[in-house]
From TrEMBL:
<dbReference type="Pfam" id="PF00628">
    <property type="entry name" value="PHD"/>
</dbReference>
<dbReference type="InterPro" id="IPR011011">
    <property type="entry name" value="Znf_FYVE_PHD"/>
</dbReference>
<keyword id="KW-0863">Zinc-finger</keyword>
<keyword id="KW-0862">Zinc</keyword>
<dbReference type="InterPro" id="IPR043151">
    <property type="entry name" value="BAH_sf"/>
</dbReference>
<protein>
    <recommendedName>
        <fullName>BAH domain-containing protein</fullName>
    </recommendedName>
</protein>
<dbReference type="InterPro" id="IPR001025">
    <property type="entry name" value="BAH_dom"/>
</dbReference>
<dbReference type="InterPro" id="IPR013083">
    <property type="entry name" value="Znf_RING/FYVE/PHD"/>
</dbReference>
<dbReference type="GO" id="GO:0003682">
    <property type="term" value="F:chromatin binding"/>
</dbReference>
<feature type="region of interest" description="Disordered">
    <location>
        <begin position="195"/>
        <end position="216"/>
    </location>
</feature>
<dbReference type="InterPro" id="IPR019786">
    <property type="entry name" value="Zinc_finger_PHD-type_CS"/>
</dbReference>
<dbReference type="InterPro" id="IPR019787">
    <property type="entry name" value="Znf_PHD-finger"/>
</dbReference>
<feature type="domain" description="BAH">
    <location>
        <begin position="21"/>
        <end position="137"/>
    </location>
</feature>
<dbReference type="InterPro" id="IPR001965">
    <property type="entry name" value="Znf_PHD"/>
</dbReference>
<feature type="domain" description="PHD-type">
    <location>
        <begin position="139"/>
        <end position="190"/>
    </location>
</feature>
<keyword id="KW-0479">Metal-binding</keyword>
<dbReference type="Pfam" id="PF01426">
    <property type="entry name" value="BAH"/>
</dbReference>
Amino acid sequence: MAKTRTTRKTLDSYTIKGSNKSIKPGDCVLMRPSDSSKLSYVAKVEKLESDAKGSNVKIHIQWYYRPEESIGGRRQFHGTKELFLSDHHDVQSADTIEGKCTVHTFKSYTKLDSVGNDDYFCRFEYNSSTGAFNPDRVAVYCKCEMPYNPDDLMVQCDGCTDWFHPACIDMTPEDAKQIEHFFCQNCSSEEQKLLQNSHATSRHTDVKVGTKRRRR
Ligand SMILES: [Zn+2]
Ligand SMILES: [Zn+2]
């Protein structure tokens, strides 16, 4: 019946030192880097445990990697608050927990009204030994065929519903914010073809239609 000294207790929750914030398995936390000039590390809490007396709390975590920590490095389509859920598990002292944060799904992140300091998003799982991502393909947008970076302003074409970077369609960000209806070059020429078919007499060549037109 006697318990040995090495018995560890699993905790349901833990209050972060110096704060009143409580964390539990499944939550995401910011971990203090050993080099204070670096950004905090982000991890998902898997398990919390203490010694039999309830002290010496250890946190079992799954690390999130920032794009620059991945083998391929940061790419243009990576958001500033983007993280990859890695296969790298670890056990750390709970003293290194700096605070709590939220890692949103890509979809819910793009729907946030405002992005706070502690808001992040994750759309890829990352294999830290091979550098592979899951999913290994994502939808690409615009003429430049880039995956969506939620930090970038984009305008949607009313025709094909593809999204475009203002710079890629010769539009200023100011115009892009104000435009109510936009047709990309392809859709403009489709529209033009339809017009030509219904009005066989009118022939236009290489005319951009609708790209900056506003309709009410
Ligand atoms: Zn583009
Ligand atoms: Zn279009």
